[in-house]
Every structure is written in C-alpha cells, then in structure tokens.
C-alpha cells in the first residue's frame, strides 16, 4: 500500500508521543512501541495499492498550498481490528479545510489501484493512531490510563507517502525542493 499522510509539527508530535508513552507506561500496546525508524504521529488521508502516473507531482503542489493546517483532536475512537481486537485512536475534528483537502487528494488519486475503502471520501474518519490491536480488557486499561482525555490543538506542517512494500517514505508537498 502507498499512503498520503500529514505530519505533525514538533510540539504537536511531542504531545501525541506523550500520550503514546502514557499508554505504554500503563502496559498498553501503544504506538510508542513501534520499532520502524520512520514511524511518527500522522494523519492518513489516503491509502491505495498504486498511485496513478503523475500523482506524486500533483500531490506535491496540492500539499505545498494546503500546509500548514491546524486541527483539533478530540475524544477517542475505537476501530475494529482482527477478531475481537480494537485499535484506539484520537479523533481529528473534520474542519471544512481538512475535508476539502481530503477530497482534493482523492481527486488527484482518481484511478488509483485498489483504494482502501477506509480512506475514501464519505467513509473516512480522520484520526491519529494511539495503539496497536488491543483486547477488550486492554481497551479498558487504556481508558483508565488516559482518564478524561483532553482535546489538543496542533498543526500539520509536512506530508509524506509511505510505501508498505518497500518500507520507505517520500516527502510530499515539496515544490522545487522546498517543503510545503
């Protein structure tokens, strides 16, 4: 799969990593434990098996214009994973700007191979991941560890694409070598 992801500015990144660590310290399998060197807090806008020809260049232009983008995180979302397991995420408030950017990304990706149905417009729930696959008991433990989970405002200042086949990332939003 290839993704289009928005990346947090340093203070926003630290705030999300603090929550990851709080969960890990409580014994929850959080994303703090992800060993991939490129893993970091992000918002996935799209995922597909293959991007259409020329999409990367058009995404560079689109994201260079759209960033920075300030968002608010609020509340926890729980998504079904394999069997009875769940994944816990921090909900991103879908502002007009964010929803329009998401739609424009998918316009660029028109004709993409095997688009993930979870990320297409009308089905997408914007979120930042907090945990890996949890048992129902671990979901309870996570809620206990987080207590009343506060809202957080932060800014996405960069973007990238991640290729799950090669495990490599590519910056997006750079026009003439200058990040967006």
Automatic annotation (TrEMBL):
Q: Which UniProt keywords apply?
A: Ligase
Write one Gene Ontology MF term. ligase activity
Q: Which Pfam families match?
A: 2_5_RNA_ligase2 (PF13563)
Q: What is this protein called?
A: 2'-5' RNA ligase family protein
Q: Which organism is it from?
A: Kitasatospora purpeofusca
């Amino acid at each position: 799969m290839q993704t289009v992801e928005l990346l947090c500015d340093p203070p926003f990144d630290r705030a999300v990593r603090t929550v990851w660590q709080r969960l890990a310290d409580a014994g929850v399998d959080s994303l703090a434990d992800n060993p991939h060197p490129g893993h970091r807090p992000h918002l996935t806008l799209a995922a597909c098996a293959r991007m259409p020809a020329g999409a990367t260049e058009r995404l560079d232009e689109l994201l260079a214009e759209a960033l920075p983008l300030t968002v608010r995180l609020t509340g926890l979302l729980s998504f079904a994973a394999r069997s009875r397991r769940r994944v816990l995420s921090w909900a991103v408030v879908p502002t007009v700007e964010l929803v329009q950017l998401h739609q424009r990304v998918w316009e660029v990706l028109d004709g993409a191979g095997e688009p993930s149905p979870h990320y297409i417009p009308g089905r997408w729930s914007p979120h930042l991941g907090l945990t890996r696959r949890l048992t129902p008991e671990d979901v309870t433990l996570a809620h206990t560890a987080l207590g009343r989970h506060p809202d957080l405002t932060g800014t996405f200042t960069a973007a990238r694409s991640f290729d799950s086949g090669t495990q490599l990332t590519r910056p997006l939003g750079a026009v003439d070598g200058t990040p967006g």
